[in-house]
Design brief:
Layout (H helix, E strand, L loop, with lengths): L1 E4 L18 E7 L6 H13 L3 H6 L8 E5 L2 E5 L20 E7 L2 E7 L9 H15 L4 E2 L1 E6 L8 H12 L9 E5 L12 H16 L10 E3 L3 H10 L6 H25 L5 E2 H16 L1 H27 L31 E6 L2 E6 L28 E2 L4 E2 L2
Parallel strand pairs: 1-4, 2-6, 2-8, 8-9, 9-10
Antiparallel strand pairs: 3-4, 5-6, 7-11, 12-13, 14-15
């Protein structure tokens, strides 16, 4: 059985579009797939509009991010799937692209940045794409006030996925972000509104991080928050006419009240944090990309050295057979590096490039340059099919092909 609920507009929470940058509070949400980042935002909207769960039941339910969940034999669907939210494939991150949600708080704006989950079942390549999507998205902002690592509180042991999720998030953050890091444990009603067993695992990973990198990241009461946003699902059920008994209702009332207090405590903590410059985190990841790119020139340099050593050995043999060749000098393969003043855009059509086999190696030779002075920024070198290449003036944005 299926039940659907439409998305509602947010006219009664419309933020001031002219709010200055220094009054904007930017909060980045990170965490494994399925941890509840989107539910976190959906619940917050209803907390802001209504003081109590009973008031929310009488009011129009606010749903700004599509979602779905199962209740007995009924599948409750909130909104429709789109380019941002996909919930038809098990195990994949429901959130496919980053986007921001703005809420007015007094004369300020809170911006929550929803992101794709870590640990996507499509593999490490998809996780790498997701992190690149996150970095590209936050590049438009000057600062972050908070970086929330969202986890479930009931992890009984250190699984590979749990370790990967926490370590992968920390790896992409600049050391300066440690003052802005917060740990949010979702679905905490089942652990009596506490971080549960997961706290011990996080402490172990942070201790290991401190030993290996010399960076101590706190995970204490002040920057740890236990939330339970199941009252949002309760509202969805009630709007669909599902009756729950008094015991269940009271449980969700307590969940609502506790979560509202935790949201308030979280915001009180965030406003005391120093601003983390987004450029610092971007620089860290750009440096990592540059280091990875060094593998190719290092390999080519090593190959050139080996080739020259072999040439010297061959020349030595020839000299032993004919001493007169000694005056010719040792033959050498020289490599000339010519830096480009501007990036170049090329396509991989047969008319623009060809593959050259050099022994076991294959190299691409570019016969022609489609755009010899490209002004695109943020596109990694030697990247194929990057969507941002469509912005190149040599590309027809309608067809995706080079203008002829």
């Amino acid at each position: 059985m299926y039940s659907r609920y439409s998305l509602r507009d947010m006219s009664d929470l419309k933020p001031n579009s002219r709010c200055p940058t220094d009054k904007q509070i930017n909060i980045l949400l990170l965490g494994p797939t399925g941890v509840g980042k989107s539910t976190f935002i959906n619940a917050l909207v209803n907390y802001l509009i209504n003081d109590t769960l009973k008031e929310a039941e009488r009011d129009t339910m606010k749903v700004i991010i599509s979602a779905c969940f199962q209740y007995d034999e009924t599948r409750i669907t909130l909104g429709d799937q789109d380019a941002f939210e996909q919930f038809s494939t098990e195990g994949q991150s429901a959130t496919q692209q980053c986007r921001s949600f703005l809420f007015p708080i007094g004369d300020r704006i809170i911006r929550f940045i929803d992101t794709p989950g870590v640990g996507d079942v499509r593999g490490l390549d998809q996780d790498a794409e997701n992190f690149q999507e996150i970095l590209n998205y936050i590049a438009q902002y000057e600062h972050l006030n908070g970086v929330c690592i969202m986890l479930k509180p009931d992890e009984p042991r250190m699984t590979i996925l749990f370790r990967f999720c926490v370590n992968e998030i920390l790896r992409h953050l600049n050391v300066g972000a440690k003052e802005n890091l917060m740990f949010i444990f979702t679905n905490s009603r089942a652990t009596f509104y506490s971080p549960g067993a997961s706290k011990r695992l996080v402490d172990a990973l942070l201790a290991q991080h401190a030993t290996e990198y010399g960076v101590t990241i706190p995970c204490v009461r002040a920057n740890t928050f236990s939330l339970d946003n199941e009252s949002f699902r309760y509202l969805a059920l009630r709007k669909q006419g599902v009756e729950l008994d008094e015991y269940q209702t009271e449980s969700y009332v307590r969940s609502w009240e506790y979560s509202v207090r935790e949201y308030g405590r979280m915001m009180e903590y965030i406003v005391t944090r120093p601003l983390h410059a987004v450029s610092d985190t971007l620089s860290l990841n750009e440096a990592e990309q540059l280091i990875r790119k060094l593998s190719r020139p290092i390999a080519e340099t090593a190959k050139n050295i080996e080739d020259n050593i072999q040439l010297a050995k061959d020349h030595k043999k020839r000299i032993l057979e004919d001493p007169s060749l000694a005056s010719q000098g040792v033959p050498q393969l020289n490599v000339t590096i010519t830096p480009l003043s501007q990036p170049r855009t090329v396509c991989i059509s047969d008319s623009c490039c060809r593959v050259i086999e050099d022994g076991k190696d294959k190299k691409i030779e570019y016969i022609s340059i489609c755009h010899d002075q490209c002004y695109l920024r943020g596109v990694p070198q030697e990247t194929l099919a990057d969507p941002r290449l469509a912005e190149c003036t040599a590309i027809n944005y309608k067809t995706g092909r080079i203008f002829i």
